[in-house]
Amino acid sequence: MTAPVRPDAAASARWEPGTVILSTYLHPDGTVEGQGAVRVVQHDETGLVTWQAPGSEVLWSVLANGAEVRTAPLAERFRQPWKQIRRRWRGQGVLRVSPADAPWTVWLFWTEAWQFRGWYVNLERPLTFGDHEVVTTDHILDIWVDTNRRWSWKDRDELFAATQAGRISTAEAAQIRRDGEAAVEVIERWGPPFSAGWERWRPDPAWQIPPLDR
Question: For residue 12, what pLDDT is reported?
Fold first, then answer.
């Protein structure tokens, strides 16, 4: 289980750039789905920006037999038990921009040569803040935005499968879709954080990879 969290932490205390915190994703039942140590890039009234370094150790969900979750047939994916393993973050790192109180985080992806690939809108519960941790729950539905600002839905079939499996309720799924439509409105008018120039950001070369266990 995770440490107790304070919903008002975003307003009462802000982290300095370079601070190491835990980023925790919970299942709807409160158990850990994934977790990693990240560095704070920016934390102000607009929200929180963090960096997951390449090669950093993370807790990662897999099927009970150790196979990747997406190898399970869709109809069974959310009915089978999952477990967590430790592994290294693969590929280039990821910058996560979480607008204050928004039900999504925007993930920015690059190639290992720092060629920008696009924005990934991860629909999720608004962040809850702890002393050195942020906690959320993934809402399955996502949006991909390419470098030409074209967007497309991702994982709508998984959202339906999770609803059929009872992982989330019909009412929750409807709200998630509304949240996605609100995110699309931001994309189409190219509001922040898409317009904020984060694709040009680079990590401080002095930053070491933070350990998962602190």
Answer: 53
Give just the sign of the alpha carbon dihedral 69, 73, 74, 78. negative
**2.40.10.410, 3.40.50.2300, 2.40.380.10, 1.10.238.10: which CATH number matches 9-195?**
2.40.380.10
What residue ranges do the domains of the chain occupy?
9-195
The predicted model scores a pTM of 0.92
Task: Judge whether 80 and 110 are in contact, CB under 8 Å.
Answer: no
Distance of alpha carbon 138 from alpha carbon 153, whole angstroms: 15
Rounded Cα distance between 138 and 27, Å, is 8
So what's the pLDDT on residue 28?
A: 87
**CA distance readout (Å), 187 to 13, 138, 149:** 30, 20, 8
